[in-house]
């Protein structure tokens, strides 16, 4: 299988020297994200996220199953991230790379273990029927920072998804199709968003260069990285710095504070995008969103 | 052993050509070997059959005592064993049984709304599940291990065939609460789910036809115990003394597979290649073939029940239920009609053999 | 790019990293497929063919992980592409095609997915510049009994000439053919036909099946179709692929100036 071409010495020197002088190849500020574009599909729970040339799709689907024996009040939520050769020919189907493992571990910690999704709200009939949610992430194009993009995609898709209304009467459970009853949003306790910092050598003042939202070229040249997951309230959900170059604690604290700031901006972006999508869907009628009525007006 | 006769250079005489034994020629140049056979007049195949002739087959049913039904089909060197096992599927409160009640129904709109992917395909019945196992040592190409591409494709094809033909009557698989008297008023408490395992013992081409025939024969000779819901124990109980067969459709459908092999067009003004149809290919012909055509058809035998040897090709009324052609580009639309007639006569032979097997006591 | 309401929405090269890519949306069923083609690439030694390129097709479902259905889809696409791609031009290499099912009404229905997958793959192969013997196009036709209640776009519903012995067909009993059916029409159909033809009119793929509803057993006796009806349908499918299909390809590539 083809490997990614090795970065030439000339390219490497150029990029690192430029960073020492606070200049990035694509002209961005060292601490700014690329333009995040969110677009939704026809169904609820489907989002296409673009971060420059990196592109990830997320789709949420749900089905009704019997809950686990040891957790009869909770639904289940799984995230599937299978990278294929579409993102980059160096990925193979069925042979997960280190990036695969890191990505699924980080999403697991950030979203599932931080209980962003309230699993108890997915219960229909205790010990008999619960909702089982599944997030499928499809990586379409890899130009760096798949982790942050995947996290934004998952959270946005979860916030966008609508669960069909279920009524329980005695022993029977009726799942109402969307044409009968308006579906309800999921119960998300908070929105954890990952921010990845890449460390590429020291700048003129001797401080570590911490680059935010690295492109594939910058990722190939980095000496270390750290992913920190924060929500808009500034609460840290997880921190991961696995090996790589040693960085001073003070620098890491600065990064953490920066991440908290950035996440506030991303959160606002997601909220705006979701609102705009609702407007398009209902053609301006937002009343039902506020009241959460489940009856058909007609 | 190749023999090379070398003579001293005597002026204008050309050295004689290399000669090989036929088996060596077949190994070195399999495509050319097959083509030379087919270019004969009349075209013959290396296995001795003519192109529209299929292999003789034998059928044995109910040879596996632990399965609810079984069949062994041998067609030339291809041998397939099929076993049917019924398992009870209980409907829990809140389950929607409608997806078990019909083939090809559209997914219920509620499940559709949340985008779930039902087991075995939301729009295909989930009660009859075939599975093909090729890693049995039947051929060098399929070593031990998880099912490879061909086994997976075959399993999916057979599942599709079960749904397309609607072979098994799904109403007959219901399990009711209590006794059989007033079925219309009773609640459905569960279903018989049929697991069909197809094991290939020996592979010499055309496993699809053999596997499908084995499945139909095994289903026809299966017997399931009578099952009903016991309200006291809140479970389904089976009665080992009462057995009933699985209700199938009357007109049984069968598949016929053809391989198309490219041969250079014979001298008649035509240039290029034409495709020659070979009925029931063996593995050598399948490897050389560029395209495969499978036709699933039922034959309306009508009153010609008695004398099968008198059936002539043109007289059979046949309805086609599935056509699959993949690979290559040489098949002509008119050739499909000839294939349908050949498929009809093969289906008649299948039905005849099955009927004979059913009459012999177990 | 839609000149007629039945033309699919095609967007070429949406993926910057792939050699060739295409996004295809079927106009009536809203099935969206995204394919990427990379090649000729380095091939694993065990897959290497001495005088041909190895073609690898991977189909990734929209929901869940790939199962037997996706393996079957990739095997059908593989056999079709084997007769379109000139594999002897790049021996000992790999041509890798990945097809992602982005959006579908029914993620597991093979008839609804096969046509968009094939068309999208052919377009992305053209964009990637993989040498091909000829182009092909695929069309999905469904035969429905009873034209009542089918609201199709213009040109989608038609009748085959010469069908029916007597002229006494009422609207309920007449058989109509629907092009590019969505899942609702498909659930009412008697049979579904996916036909792929090359530009010259050669048949590349046929996947025709009986798909009426029912609970099987005796009620399934008498289903199926007559071979002569099928042959008429195939002729119509050939006309659609060779004329309209090739026109769609030409239009889609017109402003690219790839060649």
From TrEMBL, chain A:
Ranges where the Exoribonuclease phosphorolytic domain occurs: 33-164, 192-261
Cellular location(s): Cytoplasm; Nucleus, Nucleolus
Gene Ontology biological process terms in this record: exonucleolytic trimming to generate mature 3'-end of 5.8S rRNA from tricistronic rRNA transcript (SSU-rRNA, 5.8S rRNA, LSU-rRNA); nuclear mRNA surveillance; nuclear polyadenylation-dependent rRNA catabolic process; rRNA catabolic process; TRAMP-dependent tRNA surveillance pathway; U1 snRNA 3'-end processing; U4 snRNA 3'-end processing; U5 snRNA 3'-end processing
Gene Ontology terms: cellular component: cytoplasmic exosome (RNase complex); nuclear exosome (RNase complex); nucleolus
Keywords: Cytoplasm, Exosome, Nucleus, RNA-binding, rRNA processing
Keyword match Repeat: no
InterPro entries named in the record: ExoRNase_PH_dom1, ExoRNase_PH_dom2, ExoRNase_PH_dom2_sf, Exosome_comp_Rrp42_subfam, PNPase/RNase_PH_dom_sf, Ribosomal_Su5_D2-typ_SF, Rrp45
UniProt key word Phosphoprotein: no
Top-level division of the source organism's lineage: Eukaryota
Family: Belongs to the RNase PH family.
Name listed for the protein in its UniProt record: Exosome complex component RRP45
TrEMBL record, chain B:
GO MF terms, alphabetically ordered: mRNA 3'-UTR AU-rich region binding
Subcellular localization, as worded in the UniProt entry: Cytoplasm; Nucleus, Nucleolus
Keywords: Cytoplasm, Exosome, Nucleus, RNA-binding, rRNA processing
Exoribonuclease phosphorolytic domain residues: 53-225
Lineage: Eukaryota, Fungi, Dikarya, Ascomycota, Pezizomycotina
A Pfam short name: RNase_PH
An example Gene Ontology CC term for this record: nucleolus
Descriptive protein name: Ribosomal RNA-processing protein 43
One biological process term in Gene Ontology: U1 snRNA 3'-end processing
Similarity comment: Belongs to the RNase PH family.
UniProtKB/TrEMBL annotation, chain C:
Main location group: nucleus
One BP annotation, GO: U4 snRNA 3'-end processing
Record-annotated Exoribonuclease phosphorolytic domain positions: 9-131
Protein name: Exosome non-catalytic core subunit rrp46
One Pfam family linked to the record: RNase_PH
Key words of the record: Exosome, Nucleus, rRNA processing
Stored SUPFAM superfamilies: Ribosomal protein S5 domain 2-like
Gene Ontology CC: cytoplasmic exosome (RNase complex); nuclear exosome (RNase complex); nucleolus
Protein family (similarity comment): Belongs to the RNase PH family.
Subcellular location: Nucleus
Gene3D superfamilies, per the entry: GHMP Kinase, N-terminal domain (3.30.230.70)
GO molecular function, one term: RNA binding
Organism: Orbilia blumenaviensis
